[in-house]
Amino acid sequence: MVLVTGGSAGIGRAVCLELAAARAVVLVHGRDARRTQDVAHQVNGVAVRADLRDYDAVGSLAGQALAVHGRVDVLIANAGRGWSGPFVEMSDHEIAELVAVDLVATMRLARLLLPGMVERRTGCLILVTSVAGRTGVAGEAVYAAAKAGLDAFAESLRLELSGTGVQVGVVVPAAVDTGFFSARGRAYERRLPRPVGPDTVARAIVRAIEQDRAETWVPRWIRLAGVVRAVIPGVYRRLAGRFGESVRSG
Prior knowledge:
- 50% of the residues lie in helices and 14% in strands.
- Helix 1 (10-21) links the parallel strand 1 (2-4) and strand 2.
- The protein has one domain: NAD(P)-binding Rossmann-like Domain (Rossmann fold, 3-Layer(aba) Sandwich).
- By secondary structure, the protein is α/β, with parallel strands linked by helices.
- It has ten helices and seven strands.
- It is globular.
- It has a seven-stranded parallel sheet with strand order 3-2-1-4-5-6-7, sandwiched between helices.
């Protein structure tokens, strides 16, 4: 039983389709009732609705998911939202909402579903992060911070769960050709990296589950940006400043 958050569109929808092709039983989470049910119908799965901006929605989502078959074996934490523009123009509400959806909801949902996985000594948690969390992105400071938080959470949890039979991995996309950019308030304008299709990310997520990968970058070459920042940060910052901003997220 696989729960995909943010499964009604974009990367999440592509993941649900990929999982169905692999004959997985899919729980499709979404906020929009029609879109969520449409995807669930396409994958012969079950729709579970929750608006992760609301604090009580996380517990409701976990309850709905567990009520279907009494267990969740794999959690793919994909739900998220973006915001683009000068940091000082973000309202307190926008900051709190973005962090709640992109970071806190995943932590709380994992806390509710992991005990069952640990008890069964099998399970998987895959977090969809972003290159923004590894490199920083001008105009997306809060989004980048939330994604960096997911990376640290996953790394710490992986160490904590060592030997339990529960795997933890992150998939780190760069630009992805979805509605993310229009929803965040600014279109994608860079020539590189070129946006990849959501199906490419979906295949990477399924491989990460099958092969117990701790970290997967999409596309693979984008990992160089993170390496340069970590090894020679001065060079990275000069290049980022020269081109106006870091590699954009997706």
